[in-house]
Amino acid sequence: MTTLTLGEIAARFGLELRGDAATEIRGVATLAEAGPGQLGFLANPRYRAQLASTRAGAIVLRAGDADAFRGAALVAPDPYVAFARIATVYERMPAAAPGAHASAVVADGARVAASASIGPHCVVDAEAEIGEGAILGAHCIIGRGCVVGAQSRLVARVTLVQDVRLGKRVLIHPGAVIGADGFGIAFAKDHWEKVPQLGGVVVGDDCEIGANTTIDRGALGDTVLEEDVRLDNQIQIAHNVFVGAHTAMAGCAAVAGSARIGRYCLIGGAAGILGHLEVADRVTVTAMSLVTHSLREPGEYSSGTPIQENRQWRRNAARFKHLDDFVRRIDAARREPES
Q1: Which of 163, 244, 285, 318 is 20 to 30 Å from 205 at the Cα level?
Q2: What residues have CB less than 8 Å from 217, skipping those under 6 apart?
Q3: Which of 73, 90, 107 marks a domain boundary?
């Protein structure tokens, strides 16, 4: 168990300390659940009332909130970011011994760094490369032409199908499939012809890819994620999509083929982006929205109808099909001369 004093934490992360520097912190928790010896945080004002009842040994908060709190505190400009950094100290990561497990299958010709760890029942193709300090959890498959960068970690059951190149410190969660065929088909009079997918996938440094997320390889060029892209669980990235650096997507978002998404974008849960569109830098697309045209200016965008009581929604839905008629009638009334 990791134990640090509040003074040590303040010094390590450059935070202002208010209270007893000798207070020992053995873990982290929410304001509502934290007890003595644990560090909580206040980032969202809606939880400010919990300051009066929390049992936390100390709290990370903003200066304005610290003035109203009598207990020990660490003051930060952004408490959530500070808390995230502090929490890494208490994260329990399983040890991974260098070398390959006896049940792993590492083909002759595979280039595996001596410091890499290959877990149980992994399969590494002859043309694959595993970098220094990389970790492959149980049942990972590393296919032809794939490269796993230094210090990257594939938690378990991750499949790199073909021609996938991961940068350094990439984290991929269980069940993710990267480098499968994109959905390329051409209709030939009365049947579909498969379009060969000849490209690959390039993932930049410090990216994170969630559980059961799929990223297809390009049809000709590569599907690209720049550095520090963060993908939640069950996201679909189609062939030849480009995602700019520091963009984050929430669960079940889907991006169709050849779309280009800028840097520092936020894509909400279950949002969809149609193919061949462009999304500018610093665009936020709210949850459940469908992007049907390019977004060329930064800002926040939404679509869809808000949830309503069912009977009201049914009445409104019945009127949707008449909207065009209503607009035409209003326009015609505006054009009529005044009597």
Answers
A1: 285
A2: 161, 162, 163, 164, 179, 180, 181, 182, 197, 199, 200, 201, 223, 239
A3: 90
